Amino acid sequence: MIFATIYPLYLNRLEKNGRTKEELNQVINWFIGFDQDALQAIIDEKATFGTFFQKAKINPNAH
């Protein structure tokens, strides 16, 4: 599954609940360690979720 196809669905769902793209990206940054540029690169290269998590540095405070 390609992350770039799912990301807009996450965003749409959050926006319907009064949240913003910035908030989604902040959560991704905290949990995975991707800043905006790294996240956009993952989206642009149409990386799979497997690649997404291979490149991730999961926050040690995430349970």
Summarize the SSE layout with pairings.
Blueprint: H1 3-16, H2 21-32, H3 36-44, H4 49-55
Structure report:
The chain has 63 residues and is mostly helical. It has one domain (3-55). The protein has four helices and no strands. The chain has helices at residues 3-16, 21-32, 36-44, 49-55. The mean pLDDT is 94.
Strand content: under 5%
Question: How would the global form be characterised?
Answer: globular
Main sheet attributes: strand count, strand direction, barrel closure? none
Number of helices: 4
Radius of gyration equals: 12 Å
Number of domains: 1
Order of helices and strands: HHHH
Task: Enumerate the spans where pLDDT stays under 50 for 5 or more consecutive residues.
Answer: none
For the structure shown, list the relevant keywords.
mainly alpha; 4 helices; 63 residues; single chain; globular; 0% strand
Task: Give the structure's gist in a few sentences.
By secondary structure, this protein is mainly alpha-helical.
